[in-house]
Amino acid sequence: MALPTLGFIGVGRMGAPMSRRLMEAGYTLTVHDRSDRAVEALVALGAARADTAAAVAENSDVILLSLPTPDIVDAVAFGEAGILAGAAAGGGKVVIDLSTTGPEGARALDKGLSAQGFAVVDCPVSGGVAGAENGTLALMASCGGETYEEIRPILDVLGRPFLVGPEPGMGQMTKVMNNLLSVTALAVT
């Protein structure tokens, strides 16, 4: 079975090493970021460049996001040259949001994209840049079981995925709880 084509939007400190790992695993990757330097480094390794999020959606079966804020996720998904604009041209049908944006952001992304036929995976990560480079991230996915099984091989390249539940926002809440436990343990120590 052929590997799905992937798009990656947000190829900065976390997204770049995740993108490299996906290409090393044999995935065809189209990348977009507001930083030309970040994109060029991946193009030099074999990725295709996309000038907009819409262009990523046009050329990808699965779109991964690694973005810094809910507002940026919203603009990338629903903006003028966003994922939905590219989907109208026959683009991707699964969006995996690896960003840490909170439960409300995950629910808003799911509501807007699922209404247009996308499967949306709320999947924040933990493990930092070293985890992204080494493929040891913890990936806290919330989505339907069928979607999870479809995208699990992709997540396996990035680290250790866990299906935490079916509802959007559950991945975000799991990450918040994980961070709270980590900080509490650090304070106690």
Unreliable stretches (pLDDT < 50, length at least 5) are none
The H-and-E topology, N to C, reads as EHEHEHEHHEHEEHEHEH
- The total beta strand count reads 9
Percent of sequence in beta strands: 15-25%
**What integer is the average pLDDT?**
94
Major sheet description: 6 strands, parallel
The general outline is: globular
Distance between the termini: 49 Å
Structural class: alpha/beta
Helix content: 40-55%
What report would you give on this structure?
- The chain is of the alpha/beta class.
- Helix content is about 50%, strand content about 20%.
- It contains nine helices and nine strands.
- It has helices at about 15-25, 35-45, 55-60, 70-80, 85, 105-115, 130-135, 145-160, 170-189, and strands spanning about 5-10, 30, 50, 60-65, 95, 120, 125, 135-140, 160-165.
- The strands form two sheets. A six-stranded parallel beta sheet has the order 3-2-1-4-5-6, sandwiched between helices. A three-stranded mixed beta sheet has the order 7-8-9.
- Helix 2 (about 35-45) links the parallel strand 2 and strand 3.
- The radius of gyration is 15 Å and the shape is globular.
- It starts with 5 loop residues before the first strand and ends with a helix.
